[in-house]
């Protein structure tokens, strides 16, 4: 039986090679990040004892309700992710496996990435201030807005910052709160001209919003498909494309008007 014996030896060698490859794959670091629902913060309130929004040069009103910006938390850019970790996260509802370059810019050190995230946050805050004051017809040379939110980077809080500034100065334009007293969360970049942009990580941000008591979630309209895929029960999803549109839906929510949905 020389042929059968030789075939058995070949199969045995192949099995050993496959097992070795699987072992290497299981131990080898992967270019992935694992993300989970992160912190949320009410931009109308304070964080760590410091008001998130401080305004001078114009009258500021007392607000009720909340406007919560939301985040995801991801493994550090230099973290080692193994196959077993990625498989576990893939099947978990409160975790997501993402290409590392989708979370962090490639080619930079941890410090450089942190600096870039902080720069994006600063640019987002500047755009939010310009968009809000432009909407209200106020001059940036007379009204000063300071936005303070430590340990958070990136541009995705732009929309909520803008709404927070407007609520603190003007509310709904008729003496009431823009929130209608609700706990409203949302995400989206903002341009100086008031255009809302996509951000990514929406399903995890929805979970963070629901966890922290939000009942309404504002989402860039282009991300509706991701947002509806795993929408938590009890969280109302409202798509927006512009600042004016976001203000319009908040007023409609408070007044019982028609509100768009994904």
Explained architecture:
The chain is an alpha/beta fold. It contains eight helices and twelve strands. It has helices at 2-27, 83-91, 100-103, 110-136, 158-169, 202-211, 224-229, 243-255, and strands spanning 32-42, 46-47, 50-51, 53-56, 66-74, 96-99, 144-147, 183-186, 189-190, 196-197, 216-220, 236-240. The strands form four sheets. A six-stranded mixed β-sheet has the order 6-1-5-8-11-12. Strands 2-3 form a two-stranded antiparallel sheet. Helix 4 runs parallel beside helix 5.
What would the keywords be for this entry?
globular, 41% helix, single chain, 12 strands, Ribosomal_Su5_D2-typ_SF, Ribsml_uS5_D2-typ_fold_subgr, alpha/beta, 262 residues, signal, two-stranded antiparallel sheet, serine-type endopeptidase activity, Ribosomal Protein S5, domain 2, Lon proteolytic domain-containing protein
- Average pLDDT figure: 85
The CATH topology annotation of the largest domain reads as: Ribosomal Protein S5, domain 2
Q: What is the makeup of the main sheet?
A: 6 strands, mixed
Question: How many strand segments?
Answer: 12
Estimated share of beta-strand residues: 15-25%
Class inferred from helices and paired strands: alpha/beta
Count of the separate structural domains = 2
Q: What is the string of helix and strand elements?
A: HEEEEEHEHHEHEEEHEHEH
Radius of gyration computed on alpha carbons? 24 Å
Describe the structure concisely for a colleague:
The chain has 262 residues and is α/β, with parallel strands linked by helices. The protein contains 8 helices and 12 strands. It folds into 2 domains: 1-28; 39-71 and 109-255, Ribosomal Protein S5, domain 2 (2-Layer Sandwich), CATH 3.30.230.10.
């Amino acid at each position: 039986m020389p042929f059968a014996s030789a075939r058995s030896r070949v199969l045995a060698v192949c099995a050993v090679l496959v097992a070795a490859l699987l072992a290497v794959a299981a131990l080898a670091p992967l270019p992935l990040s694992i993300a989970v629902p992160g912190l949320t913060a009410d931009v109308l309130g304070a964080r760590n004892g410091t008001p998130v929004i401080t305004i001078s040069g114009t009258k500021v009103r007392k607000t009720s309700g909340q406007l919560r910006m939301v985040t995801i938390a991801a493994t550090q850019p230099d973290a080692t992710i193994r196959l077993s970790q990625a498989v576990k996260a893939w099947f978990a509802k409160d975790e997501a496996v993402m290409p590392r370059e989708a979370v962090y810019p490639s080619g930079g050190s941890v410090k450089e990435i942190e600096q870039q995230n902080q720069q994006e946050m600063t640019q987002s805050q500047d755009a939010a201030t310009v968009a809000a004051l432009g909407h209200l017809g106020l001059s940036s040379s007379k009204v000063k807005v300071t936005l303070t939110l430590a340990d958070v980077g990136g541009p995705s809080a732009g929309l909520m910052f803008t709404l927070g500034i407007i609520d603190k100065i003007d509310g709904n334009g008729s003496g009431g709160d823009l929130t209608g007293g609700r706990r409203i969360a949302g995400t989206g970049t903002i341009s100086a001209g008031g255009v809302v942009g996509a951000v990514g990580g929406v399903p995890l941000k929805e979970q963070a919003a629901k966890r922290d008591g939000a009942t309404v979630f504002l989402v860039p309209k282009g991300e509706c498909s991701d947002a509806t895929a795993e929408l938590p029960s009890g969280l109302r999803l409202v798509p927006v494309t512009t600042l004016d549109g976001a203000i319009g839906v908040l007023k409609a929510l408070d007044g019982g008007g028609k509100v768009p949905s994904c």
